[in-house]
Known about the structure:
Layout: E1 8-15, E2 20-21, E3 26-32, E4 40-46, E5 52-53, E6 65-71, H1 73-82, E7 99-105, E8 111-119, E9 122-125
Amino acid sequence: MSTDTTASVSTHILDTSAGRPAEGVAVRLTARPGPRAAWQELGGSATDADGRCKDLPALPEGTTHVRLDFEVEPYFKKKAEAQQDAPAHRDSGAVFFPEVTVMFAVTPGEHYHVPLLLNPFGYSVYRGS
């Protein structure tokens, strides 16, 4: 049994269109102490070369809901610019989902790892380990 009084959150992003981690994606962490409470922005981070955010802020005691906001449009625009001289099948730079927001419920003492599988026209998330 855990003695922690708060939940903890981590995340990483895999760019499934490239089969690589997505580096440099800004991630904001927001939390609230109940389903009708106001959201409190706790801070953010950016993914490292391994696609991970290793320094997300701690959740306040009493947190029941968490929201992760991933700003993915700048990542895909930068990727498209880097491929300007690539063959004609390169990514166009179009992004259907410029931002991905994931909201989930948490229980005190639990750790929640939420991976984002991402491509320019879709995404998937799941509770990892």
